[in-house]
Amino acid sequence: MTRIEQTEILIIGAGPSGAVAAGLLRKQGRQVLILEKETFPRFSIGESLLPQSMEYIEQAGMLQDVVEAGFQYKNGAAFAKGELRSAFDFRDKFSPGWGTTYQVQRANFDKVLADAAEKAGTEIRYRHTVVAVDVTGVQPQVTVRSPEGEEYVVQARYLLDASGFARILPRMLDLERPSDFPVRGALFTHIEDRIAPQDMDRNKILISVHPEHQDVWFWTIPFSNGRCSQGVVATPEFLARYEGTEVERLRAIIAEAPSLSHVLRNSQWDTAGRSITGYSANVTSLWGNGYALLGNAGEFLDPVFSSGVTIAFKSASLAAHCIARMWQGETVDWQKDYAVPLQAGVNTFRAFVQGWYDGGFQDVIFHQHSSQEIRRMISSILAGYAWDVNNPYVAEPQRRLGVLRELCRSTQAEPA
Prior knowledge:
By secondary structure, this protein is α/β, with parallel strands linked by helices. The protein has helices at about 15-25, 50-60, 65, 105-120, 170, 235-240, 245-255, 260-265, 310-325, 335-360, 360-365, 370-380, 390-395, 395-410; strands at about 5-10, 30-35, 70-75, 75-80, 85-90, 100-105, 125, 130-135, 140-145, 150-160, 175, 185-190, 205-210, 215-220, 225-235, 275, 280-285, 285-290, 290-295.
């Protein structure tokens, strides 16, 4: 007979959104079980955090764990396009809150958060795989396979899918729908960078634009141990022009960008490359009967502004707040109280990502006579404060960006 277990909160996935959600829920006194199909540490992409993330790490009681882990300090973002340069210091921003964060090797970072969740009383079962989900009853019911091959069932008061790109519930409950973003791909690896101090500020992520193709860009994310994450994002058709291994293709594309080639001239390419295509994703709904989708399990936009982990943490915070209200006997409207506020910030990031690829936001970033107040508003969004509606570029992102873009393109005078 199949064994049946009971828990208050069941979370699928021990990555950032799952771990932070667990930390927040344990602070409420909830019983939390996480099922994780892999063993930590394990590789994951998405190494550059945004300062807004620190608020949620702090709320979850994990700040000391992260601070003591020795990650690379980050205070901003630098951009390069041909001879043009621009940098944003996240400490100089419109929105109140954290102005600094870290650049992290995700294998270590994710384990730090998961270990902190365990210390707070969360049970994490590694190498336990979800094989079926039933949300038609009074309580969600999940069928799980253990590392030994035993199948058992977990019934929960509430279910959170924090499975990231595995997208367990969207796949099993037929929630997936195509992203409205064009398909793009990425080639990436970790290297011993040997970057000279004068060539790059290690406290900032470096985003470089291909000199001939504005929709092709590179990330350079320094770590605290002399290594960095290096990647390129482009359409699959562009990436298919290059032959060889992932690293050989990546290096060939970097060779077309003189400024980045100079920065990486002494680097040791000592790790195999990886690739991913068609990473943007969406769903028909972020919640349902007894469950909600966190982070990338719901929607993933694009890596250009490193928004993924911040959105994941925001979703964990909103979901934990809704669950707290449910336990107090309140009626929670998950569309109004979870999906809509989460989507508001996602839509802000969406407008800026779209502006990046059509070139308009690049014009804004590299404008040589930008208003300092406008730069502070943009710095806030780049720092992750996409939910601060006091910022005009959050309240009306598309309209404001459109006006600013036209001003930047039509004049070299200071934008109004």
